[in-house]
Amino acid sequence: MITHHLDGRPVIIGGGIAGLMTALHLAPEPVVLISKAPLGNQTSSALAQGGLAASLGSDDSPDLHLADTLAAGDGLCDANAARRVVDAAAQAIGFLEQLGVGFDQAPDGTLLLGLEAAHSCRRIVHAGGDATGRELVRALVAAVRRTPSITIVEGVELRRLFVEDGAITGVLAVGDSDAISLPTGRVVLATGGIGGLFDHTTNPLGSFGQGLALAARAGAELADLEFVQFHPTALDGPSRPMPLVSEAVRGEGAILVDERGRRFLADTPAGELAPRDVVARGVWRQLGAGHRVFLDARSCLGPKFAERFPAIALLCREAGIDPAMQPIPVRPAAHYHMGGVAVDAEGHSSVGGLWACGEVARTGLHGANRLASNSLIEAVTSAAWVATSVAATPLASPRRPRPAIVPPRPDAASIRPIASRALGIERDGGTLRQAAKVLAPIAAGHDSASDPALAALMMTVAALRREESRGSHFRTDFPGQHAQPQSPRLTLDETLEAAAILADTTSASEALLDRTA
Q1: Which of 219, 261, 400, 427 is most buried, with most CB under 10 Å away?
Q2: Which entry of 276, 308, 362, 416 is annotated as an active-site residue?
């Protein structure tokens, strides 16, 4: 593949909403958009059933949205970052409408607003009922394909970032037949989350933290890696990724029951609409006690279920369930990562020329627990700020990166059992320490499991550091909450040092340091 004509252009990695929006905001500056699958495919964006949170109702305001966000974040949100997002949310919805997104409307022509857990009023904008992500991706992909300044490179996977003197100099990507070494001083990671590290996940299995591993090997700081949100109601069955039963179903009145029909969250404040970590732990403990768990929408929706949630109804029918007549079997599944590459207000990382946007970035909006439907609105609003920062960065003379060994295609299959056991809904120090010992030598290797192992190792070290329970991070050996400050940022070197101490050896640390020097 000849790419010399692309030298020096900003490179955006990822074909989901964050990457697509960043490319559109950079127009008309020429950019390269790299996606390992056709645009929008194999992304969490396309699977999103929830909507975008924005204070559009007469009973709502950005102040209320901010208060709900901070409450869900359990003391670890960056209030300034959160304020910026909630203030920009309404305008972002309008911009998406201009791009052709068809949001659901009420009979009077206004946007239809839904309710989800931990929101104090209706403020969730949906498209296609429960197909918001699919509609967003459809409209944004169409807009990107008709924008001549965006060069689309599909079927190509990023394997390494080239760095010299603390700044990006290029990327190494691999297609079906050859490797591509592309000089650039500006890279935007929009690679998604980490759900693919878990056995039970609503994310595509290819979303296993590759962006985290790439950024860490490039020298970037990461933060809040211990905070993984488990969605309480994934459809319990063999499909992977697991189909999601949107929180909006509970917002319409559906309840969680066991196999005897007992509503086990009846005495929990806010019940089924409590913060996600509370509901997920409640479901997890029922399953651990030998019960089955079901979401029962028969009384609140009944025959209207398919009209209100057509995509979920179809998924249920494919599993042999009629949600109008039967409760839906559910279980928690890894859904969203609040942590990621530590970035500033413009999405810039600690490495010169490297930005991050969307789930791979840690902006400070979510804190210890994401408020429902804040993720899509974060990706949409942050993309504009990232694009502005990238465009304002002077173009340096491109330097052809030195030849490098092409790492193998990553595969997280062998890491999932380790991460699932250690980094699940309830954690403990002994299991985390054992996981770190197992993961460190794998991360130090040169095989397909190395990058997934590194992502899981950094998350494990972060979880060990936080000796308390807060938000989505629950330690059975530290069940209380302390006045603990924000998580310290974590680097590759610090991760390796911690892993070496746990393993009582420096061999893994030395191997990885040699490899990333």
Answers
A1: 427
A2: 276
